[in-house]
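Morning!

This is the sequence you dropped in the shared folder:
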Amino acid sequence: MGLVSTINLSAYEDTVSINFRILKTPNMTWLLTSKGINISKFINFVKINLKYRYRIKMNILKTNHLSILFLCVSMMLSCSSKSSEEKSNERFTNELTSTSAEQKIILFFGNSLSAGYGIDEEESFPGLVASEIDSLKLPYKVINGGLSGETTASGLSRLDWFLEDEPYIFVLELGGNDGLRGISLSESKKNLKSIIQLVRSKYPETHIILAGMQIPPNMGREYTEEFRQMYPQIAQDEKVTLIPFLLEGVAGNPDLNLPDGIHPTAEGHKIIFQNIWPYIEERI
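The structure's back. Tokens below.
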């Protein structure tokens, strides 16, 4: 795909978020619409998919605000050709340019577990859900909003980005990094509730699924137990569906986790998919 490197996602978000106002200028609006590109979907392209599929270097992102947007447009337009090198991007381009009014969105909003740290995106459990949806020819589109290193606080701060379109199902998978860092669980609980309340206030019909987590006892028995109980309490208070433990059958098994002992392998994600699919299937 040519432009490949790591990316500082925090700096990326700060850089790109201040530039969406450029889309409101007549010249940029004309450029997008004249090419049949939906502006809202273009924003989603910049926000979500660019950082996962193209991994633009930070020195490119820091150069010129307007050039970033033109670069994104060029990338989208080039993806529409049928050359062998670009066919892998065809499905991604179709998400931006084709009419998808009949497609309902399943949004996974989480951290490195959702993002599929250490494996291919298609092998992550959101990717496996997308594959299952496609195989069943169901009118749903899966959006993977996972971001490595995400805490409940940072998740809350970027949530608006992902709520431009109504999600039919919103899967909330956050809190694990809070627990591993020993963050005050009263803060974590408040942030998780705020995320749920924000989604519900904007889209009352959205089905919200909370993925329960557990952590190793590194922070002490009392903290670990309080963390475990946090998810059922939130689910009960906010009246959302709870997956008791997302990593059931995977956590603690060295054969199903990467050498760091935290992030699942591709085989581990297959089990997570089995854990989560019944909750998705019930609502579609």
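Headline: Residues 1-24, 50-67, 76-99 have pLDDT under 50 and may be disordered.

More detail when I'm at my desk.
O.
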